[in-house]
Each structure stands twice: as C-alpha cells, then as structure tokens.
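worker-3 :: picked FMN-dependent alpha-hydroxy acid dehydrogenase
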Amino acid sequence: MGVRNSAGGGAEDPEDLAEVERAAAARLPGDVRDFIAGGSGDEVTLAANRAALDDVALLPRVLAGVQAADTSTSLVGTAATLPVAVAPMGYQCLVHPDGEVAAAAAAGAAGVPFTVGTLSSRSVEEIAETGASLWFQLYWLRDRGLVAELVARAEAAGCRALVITVDVPVMGRRLRDVRNGFTLPRTVRAVHLADGPSSAHEPRQVGSGVAQHTSAVFDPAFGWRDLEWLRARTRLPLVVKGVLDPRDATRCVELGASAVVVSNHGGRQLDGAAPSAVALPRVVDAVAGAAEVLFDSGVRSGVDVLRALALGATGVLLGRPILWGLAVGGERGAARVLELLRTEFAQALLLAGCADVDAARGLATAQAAPTRRGAP
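worker-3 :: tokens ->
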C-alpha cells in the first residue's frame, strides 16, 4: 500500500472543501480512502449526519449594521481565531509522511486548537514542537498504567485539555475496511502504543487489522467510575467526546467535565445512531450553560459551523477535511482547508447579520429537530 501525494497538482487552491476531498480521493490508494471516508454498517448514520445539517435552515437577521465580523472565540479555555478545533484522528502519516506534525503546524498557523490522538502516528512531544495549541485525546485502554502515562505525557507536553472519547467500547464494524482487509503499512503505527500480539500491521485474509488491534488494547468495560478516576488524575479541563443522550451529558458535567462533544464518531460507530445535529439542541438544553457543548460529525463548510452555533454549540471539531487537505499538500493543504473555512464562516456571519460568534448563537433556525428555547 503506497501513498500517492505531493504538494503539487491541479488542486493547490481549491475553492471549497468538496474540491479538496475530490483531489485527495484521486491521490490516495482506495483502501486508505475508504478507511477515512467510510462509516460503520450500512453507513446510514454517516449519510444522516450530512442530511441533518442540510436540513438546518438558518433565519438570518437583517438591518444589523454589521460591517465586519469577528470570528474569534475561546474553546475550553483555549483562544481560537475560529470556533473550530481539529478533531482527533489517528494514523495521519497514512496520507502524508509528515502526518500530525504537518496538520498541527497548519492548525497553529491558523490559530485553532489541534487534538493529538491516542492513535497518532507522531508523538505528542514531536507535535508540541510546532507551537500549536494542543489538546490530547484518550481512548480508554485495558492498561490503566498506560492511560496514566499518556495523561502525564500530555501535561508535560503542554496540552491544554484532555478529550476522552467514550463511544468506542469496541470499534464499529466498518465494512469497507473489512472488505478491503485493511491493515497499516509497516511505516505507520500508533506511536503512543505498543503493537503487542495483535498488530494493526498483520496481514489478514478477512477483516480489518486496525479493528483487531483496537479490540486488543481498548477496554470495553469503561464506565463512570473510570471517568471519575480520570477527573481526579489531572487538573486539565476534561472534554467528553461521543455524547448523544442528554442524560449522559448531564452526568458528565456532574462529574466535572468542562465540555461535552455531541458526536456519533462521524458515523463510524453505532450505525443507526442519531445524527449529531439532531441530538445537539437536546444536549444544549440539558447542560443549560454548565459546560461548553462542542459538535462534530459532518462539518464541511463555514455555513455548517454557523448552523452548529445557531443550534447552541460553543464550537465544532473538524475531522475528515483536514485529512483530505493533508493528502493533497501536507501542511499547505491542511492550511488551505482552514483558510477556506475561515473565509466561508466570516462571510456567513455577515450574511446572517452577526457581528461575532456570540451573535451567531442567537440565530434562530427552522428544522425538524426540536427548536431551541427562544427560537420561533
């Protein structure tokens, strides 16, 4: 499995994120493309994420007298030029040799937080050298000692928040990977973990080597007491990612979470789970301002960022588009993705009559999901 990418080519200056994705798809081997783009099962939730966002109709304000929009904000105590952070995504060296280092450098230059993943193919220490504002994402591992070690490494590297992903007791059955018998090339590995007896590199005649590896190292018994243990283990803000039910969001806040991320893992876990945009308003109402509510799964434009804010989100996590940009042109490609998002979001604010991010959260929407309090 080789990676075909370069900084050159016909999509150096794409005009939207869909164009970046098309350029990346043309460069990447089919199994890598499927690993990134695919969802679980029949990909019902994957498709529903996009449809639900498209169903959110914004009600722009007029005669607002807004001449320029301020896109800056703060996310979980981290200053950001946009209400956007780069989501945790593993194995980024699959799409470009510089992997997470290049993506983090692009995020740092753009002034948005970058989330280092447990399954990162570059170490948190290497990534910290970019100077980007970093968060660190944890999967709950069978080895509690390794969890504690990763927390300590994240703190020592200057990470500003811990993001604990709670919707992967086991990896969803991602049929594209199963059919492709997807494994990692020997040049790419989760550097924060030991390969152990069940390696993601092992050739398999049936199934996904990556799923085999995660099943061996992830702890499916992860529960509320473990979250309490983690909260007591670190002074960093705790962000709980993968929440859809308002009852779980409330419990997270009760246990000291500074933020929750409304997410169905980009349609890659329970197929049939609610689209994140449908779940978001209910979670916002349940949390009632006691913690920040971030959003991911399906964000593909600056208008999508505005939609999430109008539904009550503090900000969004951006996932797959960063990988597509990285595949097209490394750091420059990822930077172009964030540049496009900034341009689109700033214009969307102006067209909606919003002077800043706070004003965007006051927009009303017309949509199928329950309407937020105060909106018509």
